[in-house]
Write a structure and sequence with these properties.
The complex is a heterodimer of chains A (about 210) and B (about 180). Chain A is built from 2 helices and 11 strands. Chain A is an alpha+beta fold and about 210 residues long. Chain B is α+β, with helices and mostly antiparallel strands and about 180 residues long. Chain B is built from 5 helices and 9 strands; from the N terminus they run αβββααβββββααβ. In chain B, strands 4, 5, 6, 7 and 8 form a 5-stranded antiparallel beta sheet that branches. A 3-stranded antiparallel beta sheet of chain B has the order 1-2-3. The termini of chain B are far apart. In chain B, about 30% of the residues are buried. The chains are: A alpha+beta (about 210), B alpha+beta (about 180). At the A-B interface, strand 2 of A face helix 2, helix 3, strand 8 and strand 9 of B.
Chain lengths: ~210, ~180
């Protein structure tokens, strides 16, 4: 007999949910290792359909400002595809500017300070298998992608210049974070920067809160 | 100077877009041991985004009360800003959004779809020592939780797009071309 107030004993429903989650994780892990979609795994994503765009003018005059907190609990559906349940979901590869939270990835063109660019590229070291943290808070990680293919290079910077990312032809780099969907970065040379703010009076400068 | 005169002056200046701050007249560099004949004065700071002018006035009872109240408001603003209570700061008037109407939803963020940008004044420097704050607001459309973030930006930012691009140290033309943001 399970006691609902006992935090250490799982109810049968909780145990079933946990087993289902582990099965999904194992299927995703196997799919990632083989590079193929997992077979025999059927996952239903129970989310409400998105509301139709009732207002023809998006952005303006849709809601009041300042924002009010909702007094009812709003059903939270993932604004992005959930990689845990959406097995066909793929991350797009971009060479244009991309941002993940407070980190921005900007292409460094060959015509922009070529000597400095060549110096940064020469000093870059290959990314290790486990990736490296990009920001001082160690929340954004740069990972080689695919793990066993051509390797991207990383040269750490200072301050808000987090570093220089060099992705050779045939390689990709993945920027990963626990709270944001991943970014995939195509071939090129990139500057990775951290968002900055002006601190309050009497405080030391600090990076923007993520 | 009476409190009524101070209030009337501040209302006039606020209508013109100028922030008035009242505080006790302590200056940086003052001697710690003040002479016995030193008098407490009330400093009235009239601050625009371009600069500020400070006037020392005699500390009448009403002016002292107003100054202490203003210092208390500044402390509350600092505490709420440290706790991330941006909505409470706006509701209490400690962050004053700049715009044509108080219900103006803001400029749609070109680099972050779903978010709206708006500039706000921060007269106490609780969020930004420059006195200007960028509000990034995710309106509650039914998906996810509404978010309201305040970032300190330089005082010479004329529009929210310039301010948002400054936080990433890119020109606005690059900021509008962000291909993906998660």
């Amino acid at each position: 007999v399970s006691d609902p107030t006992d935090p250490f004993t799982m109810t049968p429903a909780q145990a079933a949910a946990r087993a289902a989650l582990h099965a999904r994780l194992a299927a995703r892990h196997a799919r990632d290792l083989r590079g193929l979609p997992a077979d025999g795994i059927h996952v239903e994503l129970h989310t409400d359909p998105p509301p139709p765009p009732a207002d023809p003018t998006p952005g303006y005059a849709r809601a009041d400002f300042p924002a009010r907190r909702p007094d009812t609990v709003v059903h939270r559906s993932a604004p992005y595809p959930d990689p845990l349940t959406d097995l066909d979901w793929t991350t797009p590869v971009h060479t244009d500017p991309q941002a993940q939270g407070d980190v921005i990835v900007l292409a460094w063109l060959e015509t922009t300070v070529p000597s400095w660019r060549a110096q940064e590229v020469d000093a870059a070291a290959p990314l290790p298998d486990g990736g490296i943290p990009a920001d001082p808070a160690r929340s954004h990680w740069i990972l080689p992608e695919p793990p066993l293919g051509a390797r991207a290079f990383w040269n750490p910077g200072r301050g808000h210049r987090l570093g220089t990312l060099v992705v050779p032809d045939g390689a990709r780099a993945r920027l990963s974070h626990t709270e944001h969907p991943d970014l995939l970065i195509g071939p090129g040379v990139y500057v990775v920067r951290l968002q900055r703010t002006i601190p309050a009076t009497g405080r030391a400068p600090r990076p923007a809160a993520d | 100077v009476s409190t009524a005169a101070l209030n009337a002056l501040s209302v006039l200046l606020l209508a013109a877009g100028i922030v008035v701050t009242v505080g006790l007249g302590a200056q940086v560099g003052h001697r710690v041991h003040r002479p016995a004949h030193a008098r407490t004065r009330v400093s009235v700071t009239v601050r625009n985004l371009g600069g500020e002018v400070r006037v020392l006035l005699p500390a009448t009872r009403e002016a002292l009360t107003a100054a202490v109240d203003e210092l208390a408001r500044g402390n509350i603003a600092r505490r709420w800003a440290a706790a991330g209570r941006v909505q409470d700061l706006i509701d209490a008037g400690l962050l004053q959004p700049i715009g044509p109407r108080p219900d103006y939803p803001g400029y749609p963020d070109p680099g972050n779809p779903g978010y709206h940008l708006r500039l706000a004044r921060d007269p106490h420097g609780a969020v930004s020592s420059s006195g200007l704050v960028l509000l990034a607001w995710n309106p509650p459309t039914g998906e996810g939780d509404p978010t309201l973030v305040a970032l300190g930006v330089p005082a010479d930012c004329r529009d929210p797009l310039t301010a948002a691009a400054w936080t990433y140290d890119v020109p606005p033309a690059v900021y509008t071309q962000i291909a993906r943001r998660t």
